[in-house]
Design a protein that fits this description.
The chain is α+β, with helices and mostly antiparallel strands. The chain has 5 helices and 9 strands. Helix content is about 35%, strand content about 20%. The strands form 2 sheets. A 5-stranded mixed β-sheet has the order 2-8-7-4-5. Strands 6-3-1-9 form a 4-stranded mixed β-sheet, with no helix packed on it. The longest helix has about 30 residues.
């Protein structure tokens, strides 16, 4: 009987330590994942030609803060548009025949893995010439990371001259969505493990 009680106590002790270690691991995942942001380019309008041809994407980028681990979400019509990552010269000249990377799936997520400038243009040269292009400067230091301000007021664009022109990207809605995959996984595992490792009661 004493041996059974000793084994039960030892088992409870090990289970408690295992749960504590798992909680610590989950907490580290939450801390690491909590600093990455996903920016939807163009807001609800997505990656498209600005209605008035103004550089709305770069106006938005100038008011945002991008760091390593953050990502851009490009949403566009895969049948009529694409995203090219290009060099600075190809960006300036809207050269669509030469590119570093090309994306055509209509829902492109690009993650920044190093600091420095990134250049993106539409795969349609005419679209690029109408300012469907973007420059993003990525910072290296994440220790001073602050979420993009939702109160930033971009320069207002004039109303489109034609009824059929697509609406300009809504810069006020171009925000950042905190990546919550680690938090979701952590919550699910924590709930599951609580039921598995906590002692069910004395026998």
């Amino acid at each position: 009987m004493a041996m059974t009680n000793t084994r039960s106590a030892w088992s409870n002790f090990m289970n408690a330590n295992a749960l504590l270690a798992l909680r610590f691991f989950i907490m580290m995942l939450l801390i690491q994942g909590g600093y990455a942001f996903q920016f939807r380019v163009g807001g609800k309008s997505g990656w498209t030609v600005p209605a008035d041809g103004s550089p709305v994407y770069n106006q938005w980028a100038d008011n945002s803060r991008f760091q390593i681990g953050d990502s851009l979400l490009f949403v566009y019509s895969a049948s009529s548009d694409s995203v090219l990552r290009v060099t600075k010269d190809d960006y300036k000249n809207c050269n669509t025949s030469s590119y570093i990377e090309k994306y055509t799936n209509g829902h492109t997520v690009f993650t920044f893995n190093q600091s420095g400038p990134y250049y993106f243009i539409s795969g349609d040269k005419d679209n690029c010439l109408k300012n469907e292009k973007l420059v993003v400067a990525v910072l290296a230091d994440r220790s001073k990371k602050t979420p993009p301000s939702s109160s930033t007021k971009p320069t207002a664009s004039p109303a489109p001259s034609a009824v059929h022109s697509p609406p300009p990207p809504s810069l006020n809605s171009v925000g950042s969505t905190k990546l919550s995959y680690a938090a979701l996984v952590g919550t699910l595992f924590s709930s599951l493990l609580l039921g598995l490792f906590l002692p069910s009661g004395s026998s």
